[in-house]
Amino acid sequence: MSTTTISSPSEPARQIILAGGCNFRDIGGYRTQDGRMVAWGNVYRTGVLSYFSERDHSKLLELGVTAICDLRREPERTREPTRWPNVDTQLLSFDDGAAPPTVMSLASKYPQNADGIRSTMLDLYRALPQWMQPRLRGMFERIADGEGSMIVHCAAGKDRTGLAIALLLTLLGVPHEVIVEDYLLTNDAGDFQSFILSKHEAQLGVATSSHPLLTLPEDVRRVLFAADADYLTAAYDQIARDFGDVHAFIRDGIGIDNAMRDKIKSRLLRD
Questions:
Q1: What's the pLDDT tens digit per position in 176-235?
Q2: By C-alpha distance, which of 131, 154, 151 is closest to 80?
Q3: Which end of the chain lies in a sparser environment, N or C, as judged by fewer CB atoms within 10 Å?
Q4: Which of 235, 232, 217, 210 is nearest to 116 (CA)?
C-alpha cells in the first residue's frame, strides 16, 4: 500500500494541530493515476467546529477559508453551532429529508454491543450515499465555482466527511488504496475519544440525551469512533449495486457532468 499520506519535511503538514480542533486535515499532496497531484491548502476535512480557542484563531485565518460545507443534520448544527473567526466565511448546510440515517435510528435491530454497533455502522455507510446526494452536489458545486479554500466537515470528521472526501478524491483520480489510507488516518489523528468525551454536551450526532456517549461501554465507543476500511467498502459496494460503479454515481446520482468534473480537476490538481 502507498505511504503517500505521510508528509515529507518539505511538504505542508497533513494534520493541523489546534487546541479546539477535531481531526483537522489537509487533503492535498496525493498523486493521481495520471501523475498529477492534489493541491495543498484548497480542501480541508475535519470534525465539529464549535470548540476553537482564541489561540487557534490566527492559524485558522491563515488557511484562507472562504466556505464551510457542513454535512451535519439540523439538530446537530443547532446543538453545536459552527464558531469560525471570520464572519464572512460562507456556511453551506442542507435539508435533512424525511428520514436521515443515524446510528440511533439503525441500531435497534441489532444487539447493543460491539458486534451490533459494527453491523449498525455498516448499514449506516450503505445508507449514506443516497441520503447525501444533495450534500455531495452542494460540495462539488462550491469547489467548482468558488474561490479560496474550503472546509468539509461533519461531527467527527469520519463518516459523512469520510465518504464525501473519498468521492472527491475518486473524481480527482487518486488511487483507491490511497483514498482508503486517507480515510483511515482518522484513527491516527489524535486522541479522538478524549476530545469527544471532554465535551460533555457534545454528543456529535450519534447519541441522544437519553443515551449519551459518556455512558457507552468502552468497546462500543471504540467501534463507533473507528475508521474501518470495511465501512467505506460497504458504501462503495452499495453504490455499485445501485449505479453500476462509483463514477456513474458521481455522474448520475450526484449530477456532476463532464464540464463540472473538469472544473473541479482544474481547481484542485497540479502537474
A1: 999 999 999 999 885 666 776 666 454 444 433 444 566 778 899 889 889 999 999 999
A2: 154
A3: C
A4: 217
Residue 53 resides in a domain = yes
Rg over alpha carbons for the chain, rounded to the nearest Å, is 18
- Rounded to 5°, the CA angle 144-84-139 comes to 20
Short-list 152, 11, 12, CA closest to 82: 152
Tell me the whole-structure pTM to 2 decimals. 0.91
C-alpha cell, 218: 468502552
Tally of domains within the chain: 1
Range of the domain at 190: 25-270
From residue 207, alpha-carbon distances to 107, 143, 224 in Å are 11, 31, 11
Q: For residue 19, tell me if it sits in a domain.
A: no
Residue 162 one-letter amino acid: G
* Continuous H helices in the chain: 57-62, 74-79, 103-106, 114-131, 133-145, 160-172, 176-184, 192-198, 218-225, 229-243, 246-248, 258-268
Q: How many CA atoms lie within 13 A of 119 on its CB side?
A: 11
